Amino acid sequence: MPPALIKSRVSEGSYHQLGATWDGLGVNFALFSANATKVELCLFDDAGGRELERIELPEYTNEVWHGYVPDTRPGTTYGYRVHGPYEPDAGHRFNPNKLCLDPYAKAHVGALQWDPAVFGYIMGQEDTTFDERDSARFMPKSRVIDPAFTWGRERAPSVPWDRTIIYETHVRGYTKLHPAVPEHLRGTFAGLGRKEVVDYIKTLGVTSVELLPIHAFVNDSHLLDKGLTNYWGYNTIGFFAPDPRYSAVPDFVFAEFKEMVARLHDAGLEVILDVVYNHTAEGNENGPTLSFRGIDNHSYYRLMPDNQRYYINDTGTGNTLNMSHARCVQMVTDSLRYWASEMHIDGFRFDLGTILARESDGFNEAHGFLQSCLQDPVLSNIKLIAEPWDIGPGGYQVGRFPPGWAEWNDKFRDTVRAYWKGDPGKQAEMATRMSASAESFAQRGRKAWASVNFITAHDGFTLNDLVSYNDKHNEANGEDGRDGSSDNNSWNCGAEGPTDDPEISALRERQRRNMLATLLLSQGTPMVLAGDEFGRTQVGNNNAYCQDDEISWVNWNFGEKEVELAEFVRKVIVLRQSFPILRRTRFLTGEYNADLDVRDVRWLSPAGTDIEEAHWADANARCFGMLLDGRAQASGIKRPAMDATALLVLNAHHEVVNFALPEIVGGQIWRCLLDTNIPDDVTRETFQTGETYEITGRSLVLFVLEPESKRSVALRRAIEGFRQMAERPIPMAAPESGPETERAMAEASDVTPP
Q1: pLDDT band at 684 (very low <50, low <70, confident <90, very high)
Q2: How far apart are CA 588 and CA 578, in angstroms?
Q3: Which of 467, 581, 728, 754 could form a disulfide with 508 if both were Cys (CB 3.0 to 4.6 A apart)?
C-alpha cells in the first residue's frame, strides 16, 4: 500500500507571474490553461522519484490556475496533473494520469524514459483512445530555483552591429575533445567558460558566440533505438530551463550557465542563443503527453481548422506552436526576457523564425510578436536574428522581417559557393551579395547589418567538407543516405574526400581562404562556423544532427596547416575591424553623388574600368573588382567620409587574370594587404595606379589606397593589428598536466585530424 500523501496548507496566491516563484517564505504556483477543469500540483522528493503530495490549485483567475504553498523552498521538485475533456476531435487531450512539466519551469530534474505510459492514448491503438497508466515515474520533473547569483563586475559587451562577427558553435561539441579542459568539465557550460577556451575565441577576433539550442530538450525515441541522439537539440520541452545535460553539476545548472556567460562577457564576448519557439518535443497526434499537450492542447498548438484532432505541421516536426494565441506570445516573450534579464544573454537566433509571425492566412510582418519585441524595453536593446523560412505555405521570407531584426541570408551562402565553384553567370549576383543584398534588405530604414551572411552553419557541410566532397556521406545517420540536402553547391577540387595529391590539397586550402575572406570582407554581418577557421571536418556528413561523437565534436588535435588557416582568419578579421569601409551600415548603391562627386562603390572589369551591362551578362566572366570609395557618404549626414579606399578583386577563373589597378582621386599607390594565393605574405607590396597585378586563378586580393595628403589611420590600425598577431600567436589547445590530461590526449589521438 503506497504511503499516504502529506497535506500542506495552501492559499490563493497570485496569477500575475506564471511558473513557480519563491519569495523567501514559500512558493507561488501559477499555470495557464483556458480549457482545464481542475489542476493538481504534485510535489516529489528531491530526486523526483516519489510523489509526496498532491495539492489542488484553489483559484482560477483570467484563465490562470494558481495557489501559494508556504514553507516551500528552492529545490522543490514538482509537476502538474491537469483535468479536463479528452476529446481529440475537438482539440482537447487532457489526461490527469500524465504528469506535465511546467512550461515556465526554470530547471528540470531527470530525463524522459520512453515508455507507453507517457502517451495520452493507448499505444498501438488510435490516438482517440484514453490511457490510464501513471506517467510520473518515467517523466522529468520541474524544480523551483533560487535565482540569486553574484555577477560581480560583469557587464554586457554591447558590440555594435557593424563590428559584430558571429561564431556559431555547440556547447558540448566545442570542448568534448579539448585537452586543456578537465575531463569532467568537457562538453559543459563550465568547460566553455574555461580561460583557455575563452582566450582562444577572443584571440581569434570574433565578437559574439552563438550557441546551438541549450533549452531543455528531449531525445527522440527513434534515434535512441538506433543508438543515436538528438545532438543539435532542436526539440525543446522547456523554454526557461537550461538543459542539465550540459552541466558539470546538473543540480546547479542555472548557476553554471550564468558563470559561463560572465566569463565570456569578461572577455568582451557576447552570448547569443539559438532558440526553438516554433514547435515542441511533443510531436503530432501520435506523440507523448509531456507538458503543453496535457495542459491545454487547443491553446498551445495550431490545429487543423476542419479537424482539430490533427496538427498543422509548418515545421516538419509534427506540431507548430500557436503564435496567434496571446498566451503563447506571452510565454515566448517572457522566456526571452528571462534569458536576457536574468541570464544576461545578448541576443537570440530564432529557428524557423517565420513561424513566429504566422497567422491563419500566412506570414504577417506586423504580427504582434515581432512588434512586441521592438516595443519591449529589454528585447528592443538586444540582437534579434531570424532564420526567415519554414516549410509551410509562403514560408520563405528573407528580407521581410521588420526593422530592428537581422536575418540569416541563405542567398549569400548559395551565391558565394556557386561563384567560387566556378559556376557560370554568377558575377552580377555575387556583387549583390557582397553589398549586403540590398534588393532584399534596403527598406524601411534597415541597415546593411540586417543581412547575416554565412557560407556554412551547423546544418550542412563544414567549410573543409564543402571543398572536399561533391556528395554527402551520411551513412552514419542510419537513414541510408536519404537525409540531408543533396544540393550543396560543393566541389571536391578533383578527388572525393581526403587526398594526398598536393595540387588538390593546395587548391582546397586556397578555396577555404577565398570563402572565408569573402565572408569577412563583404558588407553585412558575418557568421563563422566554429572549427572552419582550422578546417574541421565531419567526413562528408552534411546532417550531423544525431551524431554526438567525433563526427560532430571539434577536434583540437591538429597541425601546422590548421594553425596557418586560423591565423589567416585572424588576419582577415583584423582587416575588417581596422577599415570601416569594409563594414558600413549604410547600403551601397553605386549611384553617383553629384554633391560629393563620388560613387560609394564601383564594379570594375580586369581592365580597371567600370563594368558595362554586356559584361555583367557575360556568363563566362569570373573576375571583377569591387572599389569602395572612402570619400562616399557614410551616414545620413551629407558630407564626405574620411575612410580609406579599398579594392577587392575576385577571380573564380582557373587561370591567372591580369587586373589593371584603377586611377582614383586621393592617391596613386595601392598597397596589397591580402592575397589568398600567398596568405603568409608580410611584405605588403605597393603598386602604382595603372600597373597590372596578376590575380592567381581562384583567388581573392585586397588593396587599399594610400592617401597623398596624410597617413591612413585605418592602415596604421591594421599594421598594428598585424604586429600584435606576430607577438601573440593564437593560443592553441594545450593539455593540462596529470592523469586526466593523459587520458584526454589518448582519446584525442584516436580521432582522425581534419
Answers
A1: confident
A2: 19
A3: 467
The residue whose grid cell reads 483512445 is: 129
pTM of the model: 0.95
Residue 703: closest CA among 626, 640, 607, 634: 626
Mean pLDDT of 446-462: 98
- Those residues whose C-beta lies under 8 Å from the C-beta of residue 306, and which sit 6 or more positions away, are none
Catalytic residues: 351, 387
**CB neighbours of 80 closer than 8 A, spacing ≥ 6?**
31, 39, 40, 41, 42, 99, 100, 101, 102, 295
C-alpha span between 160 and 735 (Å, rounded): 35
b/e burial code for range 236-249 (CB count within 10 A of at least 16 → b): bbbbbbbbbbbbbe
Residue 64, Ramachandran bin (φ over 0: left; ψ between -120 and 50: alpha; else beta): beta
CB 384 within 8 A of CB 616: no
pLDDT in tens, 348-403: 999 999 999 998 888 999 999 999 999 999 999 999 999 999 999 999 999 999 99
Going 660 to 663 to 668 to 671, the CA torsion angle's sign is negative
Q: Looking at this protein, which amino acid is placed at residue 734?
A: A
User: Is residue 744 scored above 60 in pLDDT?
Assistant: no
**Taking residues 325-353, what's their average pLDDT?**
98
Q: Which of 196, 207, 131, 205 is nearest to 164 (CA)?
A: 207
At residue 508, what is the residue type? R
pLDDT at 22: 97
Outline where DSSP puts E strands in 197-253: 208-211, 215-217, 236-242
pLDDT of residue 742 exceeding 50, the answer is no
- As a whole number of Å, the CA-based R_g of the chain is 28
- pLDDT tens, position by position, 624-656: 999 999 999 999 998 999 999 999 999 999 999
Q: Which residues contact 116 (CB under 8 A, 6 or more apart)?
A: 122, 123, 131, 133
Q: How far is CA 68 from the centre of its chain?
A: 38
CB atoms within 10 A of CB 583: 25
Residue 246 has pLDDT above 80, yes or no: yes
Compute the half-sphere exposure of residue 12: CA atoms within 13 Å on the CB side of its CA: 6
With helix as H, strand as E and coil as C, how does 674-696 read?
Answer: EECCCCCCCCCCEEECCCEEEEC
Segment 130-143 mean pLDDT: 98
Question: Rounded to an integer, what distance in angstroms lies between the CA atom of residue 473 and that of residue 499?
Answer: 16
The answer to whether the CB of 702 falls within 8 A of the CB of 718 is: no
pLDDT at 737: 41
* Phi and psi angles of residue 128, each rounded to the nearest 5 degrees, phi first: -85, -10
Q: Which amino acid, residue 374? A: L
What is the SS3 assignment for 359?
Answer: strand
Q: Which residue has the cell 586580393?
A: 701
Digit-coded pLDDT (tens) for 8-33: 689 999 999 999 999 999 999 999 99
Based on DSSP, count helices (H) and strands (E) in the chain, helices before strands. Answer: 17, 33
Helix, strand or coil, per DSSP, at residue 84: coil
Among 555, 425, 551, 421, CA closest to 491: 421
Backbone angles phi, psi at 344, to 5 degrees: 65, 35
pLDDT at 361: 85
For 309, other C-beta atoms within 10 Å of its C-beta total 16
Task: Kindly report the average pLDDT of the chain as a whole number.
Answer: 94
CA 648 to each of CA 113, 256, 670, 671: distance values in angstroms, whole numbers, following the listed order: 56, 44, 12, 12
CA distance 486 to 112: 34
224 pLDDT more than 50: yes
User: 100, 87, 93: which is closest to 134 by C-alpha?
Assistant: 100
**Owner of C-alpha cell 522566456:** 335
Q: Quote the cell numbers at residue 565.
A: 588557416
Span 721-740, average pLDDT: 74
CA 640 to chain centre: 37
Q: Where are the beta strands (DSSP E) in 601-709?
A: 601-604, 623-628, 646-651, 657-660, 669-675, 686-688, 692-695, 699-706
